[in-house]
Design goal:
- The structure holds 2 protein chains of 2 kinds.
- In chain A, 33% of the residues lie in helices and 29% in strands.
- In chain A, the strands form 3 sheets. Chain A has a 6-stranded mixed sheet with strand order 6-7-8-3-9-10, sandwiched between helices.
- By secondary structure, chain A is α/β, with parallel strands linked by helices.
- Chain A has a single domain, classed as P-loop containing nucleotide triphosphate hydrolases (Rossmann fold).
- By secondary structure, chain B is mostly helical.
- Chain B has one domain: ABC transporter involved in vitamin B12 uptake, BtuC, CATH 1.10.3470.10.
- Helix content of chain B is 78%, strand content 0%.
- In chain B, helix 1 runs antiparallel to helix 3, helix 3 packs antiparallel against helix 12 and helix 4 packs parallel to helix 7.
- The longest helix of chain B is centred in the first third of the chain and has 36 residues.
- Chain B is globular.
- Classes of the chains: A alpha/beta, B mainly alpha.
- Chains A and B meet through helix 2 and strand 6 of A and helix 10 and helix 11 of B.
């Protein structure tokens, strides 16, 4: 796994929002075909980290490098063809159809004026299928459940055909069936060589899905490594203020976690 | 079904607009025969049609009075509807219209200033020119003030727009009180919105701004769609959010300013036409903006026809007519929305 190409790299990131310092000296590497879960308590700086990696926020120090080149040197549309961001909040117009919404993911490829080609349509169709939203293609956003809207947003991100997929709490509004669908879709694109980094709130789900875990606490990376070791660390217990215990259960491929208040 | 409706929308709207234009040019204080009007228009367009049916008086009324007025109504209605649809997408709010940027109040201030200085009656075209200048100055003021505190945010623009509008409104009141009585009526007529006495000069000036602006806005439909997804998603798709927004708002102000300058305040068109058509053609700019243009044009052509003909003794203000139709429509739409 470690031999795969480093696609996205952060070095010594320091990020402010307004006057508050949100991230302090954050460094990480994201390789092709990797699934990385970012966990951490509320207001730890996870969303800020994801947005900085996507180039939406500018660090006051340090830099993000995409395929070895500083993000700031990349043309915007080239970044958007390489990196897709899928956030939990989405504000598309209620009368927009799912198919049209997903097709807007082709904007970085086609720009303001060029017509969509069959290649674009194929990408949109693939994204709809992978997210299980093909049957919703003609529906308007206003008629969807929060979970369905979330999957449509993910489909937009997949339609961008990125090499790096960044997600901020993609499972926030999803019921368990849709959650499984979401993580299966993420696994599918990851197996095609896409680097996937997702902020995930559900620690058990994060541990089951991710190959690597980053614990963000108070604006720093407090622990990094395999999910089992990160969740077993002192840092994790301290960051969340809970006791975390993993239990091996026969027939279940990953540890099941139990959390206890106050540690 | 929806796809079929979407495809049919533009042709249906186009034919309806043509019918409305023909009807509006025929009906009036002097009624012109329908076929005569059609014949005269076709003959003027260079087609070998017998155009004698109207007679010289009829032709004079048609070409120097009625046609420019009806065309101007279509331009103003279409322009305001496109402005409304654009701003609603940019601000992601179905209630947005040109008033938000200070266009209406700025134009009113400019108009009152021109009348107060006595220019409106002595210099040809001074009132629409002053109104247009007022609208543009107000919009510029909104940009500059909103941008002064750093980078212009959406809510910053909205709040600044309200403040600048209030300021221009206060200025208008003061000037109005200070204006000689015999001149006040001219301003009041303009403020109430109307197309009485507008001629080809107004059509030419209006068309230059409205058609250019509308064409550019339709062309920029896809960036508008991306922007309507919200700032963050738009930026993550590689759109230059602030520059695009500035360009779209600038074009919308030019079109809105030109419409208000030639016709005064014509409320609700920018809200009604997009609101009625969005469920039919969807919110994508390339489809909604042309449909809104046609819909808004139909609306104002018919409203102006009503303004001219509903009362035998005087002309009704066009702005009041669109409000008479628009306000109840909006209340009903609101009800239907809440009932869902």
């Amino acid at each position: 796994m470690t031999s795969a190409e480093v696609l996205l790299e952060a070095r010594g990131l320091v990020v402010d929002r307004g006057r508050a310092r949100v991230l302090e000296d954050v460094s990480l590497e994201l390789r092709a075909g990797e699934a990385v879960a970012v966990v951490g308590p509320n207001a730890a700086g996870k969303s800020t980290l994801v947005r900085t990696l996507a180039g939406l926020l500018r660090p006051v120090a340090g830099e993000v490098r995409l395929r070895g080149r500083a993000l700031a040197e990349w043309p915007r549309d080239a970044v958007a063809r390489t990196v897709a961001l899928v956030a939990a909040e989405e504000e598309g117009p209620d009368t927009l159809t799912v198919a049209d919404r997903v097709a807007l993911g082709r904007y970085p490829h086609r720009g303001p004026f060029r017509r969509l080609t069959s290649e674009d349509e194929a990408a949109v169709g693939r994204a709809l299928r992978q997210t299980g939203t093909l049957h919703l293609a003609g529906r308007r956003l206003g008629t969807l459940s929060a979970g369905e809207r979330q999957l449509a947003t993910l489909a937009r991100g997949l339609a961008q055909e990125p090499q790096v997929l960044l997600l901020d709490e993609p499972a926030a509004h999803l019921d368990i069936g849709h959650q499984l669908q979401l993580f299966r879709a993420l696994d599918e694109v990851r197996q095609c060589g896409v680097a996937v980094l997702a902020v995930v709130h559900d620690l058990g789900r994060a541990a089951a899905w991710a190959g690597r875990m980053l614990l963000v606490a108070k604006g720093r990376i407090a622990a990094a490594g395999g999910p089992t070791e990160v969740l077993a660390s002192e840092a994790a217990a301290a960051a969340f203020g809970v006791g975390i215990r993993g239990h091996a259960v026969p027939g279940v491929p990953h540890l099941l976690y139990v959390f206890e208040e106050g540690s | 079904m929806t796809e079929a409706r979407r495809r049919l929308a533009l042709p249906v709207l186009g034919v309806t607009l043509l019918a409305a234009l023909l009807m509006a040019t025929s009906v009036g204080s002097v009624s012109l025969p329908f076929r005569g009007v059609a014949g005269a228009l076709l003959a003027r367009a260079g087609l070998p049609v017998d155009a004698a049916a109207l007679g010289p008086t009829g032709e004079a009324i048609l070409f120097s009075v009625r046609l420019p007025r009806v065309l101007l109504a279509a331009l103003v209605g279409g322009g305001l509807a496109v402005v409304g649809a654009t701003l609603q997408a940019v601000f992601r709010n179905p209630l947005a219209d040109a008033g938000l940027l200070g266009v209406g109040s700025g134009a009113a201030f400019g108009a009152v200033l021109a009348v107060n200085a006595g220019l409106a009656s002595s210099v040809f075209f001074a009132l629409p020119f002053a109104a247009f200048a007022g609208a543009m100055i107000a919009v510029l003021a909104v940009y500059i003030i909103a941008g002064a505190s750093g980078r212009a945010s959406l809510s910053g623009l909205l709040l600044t727009g309200i403040a600048v509008s209030a300021l221009a409104g206060a200025g208008t009141s003061v000037l109005l009180v200070a204006t000689e009585e015999f001149r006040v009526k001219a301003v009041l007529f303009w403020l109430a919105g109307g197309l009485e006495g507008r001629g080809w000069t107004h059509v030419q000036a209006g068309a230059a701004f409205v058609l250019t602006g509308v064409a550019l806005l339709v062309l920029l439909g896809r960036p508008l769609d991306v922007l309507s997804l919200g700032e963050e998603e738009a930026a993550s798709l590689g759109l230059r959010v602030r520059a695009t927004r500035l360009l779209l708002l600038g074009l919308a102000s030019l079109v809105g300013g030109a419409c208000t300058a030639v016709a005064g305040a014509v409320p609700f068109v920018g809200l009604m036409a997009p609101h009625a058509l969005r469920p039919v053609v969807g919110p994508l700019g390339r489809r909604l903006l042309p449909a809104a243009f046609l819909g808004g044009a139909i609306l104002v052509v018919l409203a102006d026809l009503g303004a001219r003909t509903l009362s035998e003794s005087f002309e009704l203000p066009l702005g009041a007519l669109t409000a008479f139709v628009g306000a109840p429509y909006f209340l009903l739409a609101l009800r239907a929305n809440e009932g869902r």
